[in-house]
Amino acid sequence: MRMRSMLLARAAPWISAALLVLVWWLGVAAFDVKSYIMPTPGETLASLVRHWRPLAANGAITLATTLVGFSATLVFGTLIGMLVGMSRLAHQAIYPLLVAFNSVPKAALVPIFVVWFGLGAVPAVITAFLLSFFPVVANVALAFSSIEPELVDLIRSLGGSRRDLMVKIGIPRALPYLFASLKVAITLAFVGSIIAEVIGGNGGIGNVMLVASSNFDMPLVFAALSVVGVLGTGMYALFELLDRHWASRSARPSGLQGIENAS
Predict the structure, then answer these.
(1) How many domains are there within the chain?
(2) For residues 151 and 201, is the Cβ–Cβ distance under 8 A?
(3) Which BP terms in the Gene Ontology apply to this protein (predicted)?
(4) Which of 81, 158, 208, 220 might form a disulfide with 137, Cβ 3.0–4.6 angstroms?
């Protein structure tokens, strides 16, 4: 029974994907939708095979810009999240600004980045960074701000410094929160890259979608969307594995071990 449940859990995503493709195909066939409006799964697959070289090349561009922006998010988002979570003054001074900036539609900023930096990868990197930045900051700040006051008092009574509190308790506690936020951030980074490539790019999957849609080549548009879906799902799965790994190693009541090490 347990083995059957495990097999069903592993097959569930493939079953749901197959059902989605089936509904897609039946809907197009039932309503006789033209391919320049919405292609069938077969037409999308044929376009994917026919244009695999440009899709692979532009997919690599999108992946590279996304990972560069996401790497900046990982570094600066973690550092600012630690600062905001550890300091009440920093939380009051910085966090409202982050919330306000996160409310600004990033698509409205892309033309400004194009004016400043020109067409190309730089606006895509910046947009990927800005769109994925806030979830990391919010989750890391939550992890550090939720440290029990009793643990803080105990660390201080044992002669531990603020650095001991951060290294021995804060960082181990923040790791599950960090990896959970990275799963959301990486998908948002892809969204940011695609938006920038559609508006002001000269390469990448977003640019392929723009050119294909202007030529009413909807099979190519959907093929490009499938490439983005595969890339995003693959990166999400990677951070899902990391999240499970660190969640099992770094249990949330790890403060006791931190206290022992600090003493």
Answers:
(1) 1
(2) no
(3) transmembrane transport
(4) 81
- pLDDT (tens digit, 9 = 90+) per residue, 187-225? 999 999 999 999 887 889 999 999 999 999 999 999 999
| Spatial CA neighbour of 105 closest among 85, 131, 124, 83 | 131
Buried b (16+ CB within 10 A) or exposed e, 154-169: bbeeeebeeebbbebb
Q: Is residue 241 part of a domain?
A: yes
Q: pLDDT tens-digit profile of 56-87? A: 999 999 999 999 999 999 999 999 999 998 88
15-28 burial by CB neighbour count: b if 16+ within 10 A, else e? eeeeeeeeebeeeb
d(CA 19, CA 138): 36
Burial (CB count <10 Å: 0-12, 13-18, 19+), residue 1 = exposed
d(CA 263, CA 257): 10
Q: What is the DSSP string of 71-98?
A: HHIIIIIHHHHHHHHH-HHHHHHHHHHH
255-262 and 171-200 helices cross at what angle (nearest 10)?
Answer: 120
Largest CA distance in the chain: 75
- 113-153 pLDDT per residue, tens: 999 998 888 999 999 999 999 999 999 999 888 777 776 66
Does a structural domain hold residue 49? yes
47-54's contacts with Cβ under 8 Å and 24+ in sequence apart are 47/217, 47/219, 47/220, 47/222, 47/223, 48/223, 48/226, 48/227, 51/220, 51/223, 54/208
**Does some domain include residue 145?**
yes
CATH of the domain at 60: 1.10.3720.10
Q: Report yes or no on 255 lying in a domain.
A: yes
Q: Extract the tokens encoding 8.
A: 């069903």
- Write down the residue that tokens 């695609």 correspond to: 194
